[in-house]
Design goal:
Largest interface: A-B, 22 and 28 residues
Number of strands of chain B: 11
Largest sheet of chain B: 7 strands, mixed
Structural class of chain A: mainly beta
Helix content of chain B: under 10%
Helix content of chain A: under 10%
Number of helices of chain A: 0
Shape of chain B: globular
Shape of chain A: globular
Oligomer: heterodimer
Number of strands of chain A: 12
Strand content of chain B: over 45%
Chain lengths: 114, 114
């Protein structure tokens, strides 16, 4: 089956620190990979995505590269802000087959202190 | 476009009561799903649908019913509410064609069962 493993949280950083949240996956078939962000009291929203190996997704200063050889999709940001405090979910979906169905990691809570 | 809408935003039920959580999307997505989110447990899939008239169970379907009579609507019914169903419920939709199936989430319904 498919699975997504995220680094355990919570993660607490000072403003302007470098962020890495690790994500690895196992998949039957060729996955697309996603990072979603959930701000307090809200639903999840797509942060970035990558659909094939070596693609880099980026948005709002966040980046993640689809590494097929290591089955990873680590999220990075060079300088975090207080407003980045949220829960981050790594996810995958498979082309064809069970189209539309996503597999999510357990989420990583990030708190950024001023 | 409104995207994915959910009603109500908050609900308090007594044990044994029934109710329906509403979900609608205006993006003509084939795939719709319901998740519950509990502290420390990430997102758990309750039921999903790949099109009107087609539904299937996720990993935690007990105590919930769904139907999909139109592409736009995917209501979730709690048959006899229990305190274990206290949670935040999210509806999501996705395309099932193309090469990337990111999920679009509603804002959530926070349910408390006393």
């Amino acid at each position: 089956g498919n699975s997504v493993t995220q680094m355990e949280g919570p993660v607490t950083l000072s403003e302007e620190a470098f962020l890495t949240i690790n994500c690895t996956y196992t998949a039957t078939g060729y996955p697309s990979l996603f990072w979603y962000v959930q701000y307090p009291g809200e639903g999840l929203q797509l942060l970035l995505k990558a659909t094939k190996a070596d693609d880099k997704g980026s948005n709002k200063g966040f980046e993640a590269t689809y590494r097929k050889e290591t089955t990873s999709f680590h999220l990075e940001k060079g300088s975090v802000q207080v407003s980045d405090s949220a829960v981050y979910f790594c996810a995958l979906s498979i082309l064809g087959g069970d189209a539309g169905k996503s597999t999510f990691g357990d989420g990583t809570t990030l708190t950024v202190k001023p | 476009n409104a995207g994915v809408t959910q009603t109500p935003k908050f609900q308090v039920l007594k044990t044994g009561q029934s109710m329906t959580l509403q979900c609608a999307q205006d993006m003509n997505h084939e795939y719709m799903s319901w998740y519950r989110q509990d502290p420390g447990m990430g997102l758990r899939l309750i039921h999903y649908s790949v099109g009107a008239g087609i539904t299937d169970q996720g990993e935690v379907p007990n105590g919930y019913n769904v139907s999909r009579s139109t592409t736009e609507d995917f209501p979730l019914r709690l048959l006899s509410a229990a305190p274990s169903q206290t949670s935040v419920y999210f509806c999501a939709s996705s395309r099932t064609s193309g090469y990337s199936y990111e999920q679009y989430f509603g804002p959530g319904t926070r349910l408390t069962v006393t």
